[in-house]
Design a protein that fits this description.
By secondary structure, this protein is mainly α. It is built from 6 helices and no strands. Helix 3 crosses helix 6.
């Protein structure tokens, strides 16, 4: 009987000791992947998107960060990067009209600033220039 009690105690103790590592493994597997940094708050880690905006990477960086979501595949009839046929009628209206559309939006499909509210107007103009230059 004493051996059974020792065996049961040993198994119980082993489960308690090993439970910590099992729980740690579970916590590690289900932890969130990223975090959200709200503009204006001092965040411990900047996101990759923020890094692009902060470097002043020009039109291509702004395009990749924000515009490519729609303009790479033509979401909601967005003119695709490099597709001269879809860009020509827009370019014919003039660059100021394109800049205004990028900044103010163009209902129903183009949202204001392409939803890049951290982009400056100059960032958006550079992105428009990059997309227009891709058609040449």
């Amino acid at each position: 009987m004493k051996k059974i009690a020792i065996l049961l105690f040993s198994l119980f103790f082993y489960q308690i000791v090993s439970a910590g590592s099992v729980e740690d493994g579970i916590v590690e597997r289900i932890k969130k992947v990223g975090s959200v940094c709200v503009e204006g708050n001092d965040c411990a880690q900047a996101s990759a998107g923020g890094a692009i905006a902060d470097t002043g990477g020009g039109g291509e960086a702004t395009y990749k960060k924000s515009c490519a979501t729609c303009h790479a595949v033509g979401v909601n009839n967005a003119p695709k990067l490099g597709d001269a046929g879809s860009w020509q009628p827009r370019i014919a209206k003039g660059m100021d009209v394109l800049y205004k559309s990028a900044i103010d939006g163009l209902p129903p499909g183009m949202p204001m600033k392409g939803l890049c509210f951290t982009c400056s107007d100059d960032d958006l103009r550079a992105a428009v220039d990059y997309m227009v230059d891709s058609t040449k």
